[in-house]
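Title: Comparing notes on inverse folding

I've been comparing how different people in this forum approach sequence design from structure. To keep things fair, I'm posting one structure and asking everyone to reply with a full sequence. Here's the target:
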């Protein structure tokens, strides 16, 4: 009888089931969803584009409305028009001229090409001009920059009259001495008063346009077709008149500054 085998039986490994991979299901895209999503995206893009288009358009309309509200878009007089025989619409080239400043230096309007210019025609004997000067000076002080300058052309025979008028308009509490028998001030008195009342000078440039003979309007001013002052022209960087204002304006008003900036910000 054969001896029993004492070798322990080896346990056979138990087969274990491997985990099944999840079945991969394809993503089904509903064509209707694609169409609706695309339509929504297109609407969004269109709204953004419309908004971007509306912003500058709204600004342009506001600027145009401001200048129009100031009567800055009224027709120009024939003297500023190409054929000189009938009123014309803006813009038109600004006639160039040469005038002298406080130091006696000859300056041309075209020297300021590349800047936006507000050109103001006035005179020391003009009461309305004096009432306009405080707002003109305040605006010039606030807005004057490398891109914008305020020029004034005075129909006066001397800078003494201009200096006295500036003091009267901008520093009304300054006590001026009595003028001479002709109602005028000597150069010394005018210079002293101007220096004391306006030690920092003026925030705008002043040029002289001396009238001929008994005339009260200077020849440059008259060549622009101006018969009474004040009048002002807003001139762009290319030397074209973009808006023209007959009589005085309140230059510190929001509507006036919006009109000015419409050209400055171009």
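Reply #1:
Here's my take.
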């Amino acid at each position: 009888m054969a001896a029993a085998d004492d070798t322990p039986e080896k346990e056979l490994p138990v087969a274990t089931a491997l985990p099944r991979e999840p079945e991969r299901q394809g993503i089904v895209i509903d064509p209707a969803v694609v169409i609706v999503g695309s339509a929504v995206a297109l609407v969004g893009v269109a709204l953004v584009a419309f908004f971007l288009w509306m912003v500058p358009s709204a600004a342009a309309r506001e600027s145009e409305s401001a200048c129009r509200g100031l009567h800055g878009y009224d027709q120009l007089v024939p003297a500023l028009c190409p054929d000189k025989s009938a009123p014309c619409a803006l813009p038109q080239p600004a006639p160039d001229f040469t005038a002298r400043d406080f130091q006696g230096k000859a300056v041309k309007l075209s020297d300021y090409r590349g800047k936006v210019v507000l050109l103001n025609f006035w005179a020391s004997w003009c009461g309305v001009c004096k009432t306009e000067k405080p707002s003109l000076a305040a605006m010039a002080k606030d807005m004057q920059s490398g891109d914008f300058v305020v020029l004034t052309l005075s129909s006066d025979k001397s800078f003494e009259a201009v200096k006295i008028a500036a003091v009267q308009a901008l520093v009304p509490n300054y006590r001026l001495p009595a003028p001479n028998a002709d109602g005028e001030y000597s150069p010394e008195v005018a210079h002293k008063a101007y220096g004391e009342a306006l030690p920092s000078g003026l925030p705008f440039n002043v040029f002289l346009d001396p009238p001929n003979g008994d005339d009260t309007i200077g020849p440059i001013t008259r060549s622009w077709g101006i018969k009474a002052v004040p009048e002002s022209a807003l001139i762009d960087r290319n030397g074209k008149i973009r808006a023209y204002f007959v009589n005085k304006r309140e230059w510190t008003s929001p509507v006036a500054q919006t009109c000015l900036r419409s050209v400055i910000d171009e």
